Amino acid sequence: MRPIEYIKQRIKSGYYTFSRAEAAKALNKNGAVLSSTLNRLKHEGWIYPLSRGFYLALDVQHQVRGFLDPVWFVDDWAHHHNVEYYVAGLSAAEQHGAGHQRPMRFQVFTDRQLRSIKHPELHIEVLFKKNLTNAMWEERKAPTGYFHLATPEMTAYDIVAYRRSCPSLDHAATVFVELGEVLSGTKLAGLVDQGCMLSVLQRVGWLLDFVGWREKTGPLHNALLRKRLLWHPLETRLAGEGERDKRWKIIVNTEIQPDIER
């Protein structure tokens, strides 16, 4: 089989990724000969080497950009590297309808440390979370199959817990204005028993109240009441001085200014 026919056949069958091992078997080539073949396909615009031994197959529609939307391939990529994963942070928020500010990076959590991927069109930021469980994500349909997407509630938690996931509390508050539409109060409360940091959940609750979603935070507040809470600053990078919110035991040590209002 000619190399270009192999790529076209995969695309026709709905497969937009392949491994080096799969190509070697289909093309009956190995070593330097296979490397040369793959390099030629890359220069012709038919494939893109995403990570070691893993490639994207590009149809004519995507050849100009030279890349695919990550939701088309993230599940295959994770299986190739044998990691658990979910689309996270601002990328997950966008999938849930909180896309007022389109993220510059596609964010993924994995249970093993992997290198982030940089492409002229997109930066795939791979973040590490050691204890990644099925309760943290839901299955979402993609043009090529399915992918793991953080639940709305885990998305809210990650945005506040991981600074690399969201650059500022102002940005987090902006996201929460829209994300609140799909949040479940009961599922938010369930994060308490999933081992999430209580201090982060206190900040999540405060921010949701602040942007107008107090009707969603009652169950979380009640669940936290059963715990021994400490006072924590809203902004961890500033001194812990400011008005004290007794509901969440949060020291409001900064002014929050979301870009939009509910």
What features would you describe in this structure?
By secondary structure, the protein is an alpha+beta fold. The protein folds into two domains: 3-63, Arc Repressor Mutant, subunit A, CATH 1.10.10; 70-252, no CATH class. The protein is 39% helix and 19% strand. The protein contains eleven helices and twelve strands. The chain has helices at 3-12, 20-27, 31-43, 60-63, 74-80, 89-95, 152-161, 169-179, 185-190, 198-210, 214-225, and strands at residues 17-19, 47-51, 54-57, 85-87, 105-110, 117-119, 122-128, 137-142, 145-150, 232-233, 243-245, 250-252. It has a four-stranded mixed β-sheet with strand order 4-5-7-6. Helix 6 (89-95) packs antiparallel against helix 7 and helix 7 (152-161) crosses helix 10.
What are the salient characteristics of this protein?
2 domains, 12 strands, alpha+beta, 262 residues, four-stranded mixed sheet, elongated, Arc Repressor Mutant, subunit A, single chain, three-stranded antiparallel sheet
β-sheet strand percentage: 15-25%
Global Rg: 22 Å
Total helical segments: 11
Q: Secondary-structure element sequence?
A: HEHHEEHHEHEEEEEHHHHHEEE
Q: Can you give the mean pLDDT?
A: 94
Helix content: 25-40%
Low-confidence stretches: none
- Which class of secondary structure composition applies to the elements? alpha+beta
Apparent shape: elongated
N- to C-terminal distance: 57 Å
| Strands, total number | 12
Largest sheet: 4 strands, mixed
List the domain count as a whole number. 2
- Across the major sheet, the strand order is 4-5-7-6
